[in-house]
Amino acid sequence: MTIAPIIEYFSNYWPLDDLAINILNDRTIEKKLKRKEYILEQGLECNHFTFVVKGCLKMYKVDSKGNQHNLQFAVENNWIADYGSFYNQEPSDLNIEALESSHLLQIKKNDVFHLFDHSSLFDRNIRIIIENSFIEQQKRILQTISSTAQERYLYFLKKYPSLSNRISNIQIASYIGVTPEFLSTIRRKASGK
Length: 193
Known about the structure:
The chain is α+β, with helices and mostly antiparallel strands.
């Protein structure tokens, strides 16, 4: 196993020193998922920060009517976790599932806290990840309450430029809050047909 993808990711923010790299190397788990396998299921506690080396994951909630509401996608060089469950040590309301066969690097909760205590660089990097996630969630909320479906679709394309060719219309429609049929109408309008 190599943690090179995480080291490279952090080099965009606060490059890790040798001590942090050694600790991270000792405390990182490699995981491979098949399509439709889960790393988190509703009702269980989120116990890992997960970095996607290859593949695509989605985080979603299933409502009382059985409808899926996609909150986030994570593709190569992205992190995913239910931070509320992780930090509050409570069962998650969310699921995290592989949409493709995926290669992941995970850090267990206790190991994340160990890294916080022993590496200020790791602590700073994770803080940036969480702050960026918070900013993205604020944008999503604003999109939901103040944008048209077409604007939400265009934002999705900007945020996830390669995903429209990798995931189904059902997944995209769930993310932007429309039916797959209405998404088809939006796509036709966007392409000028």
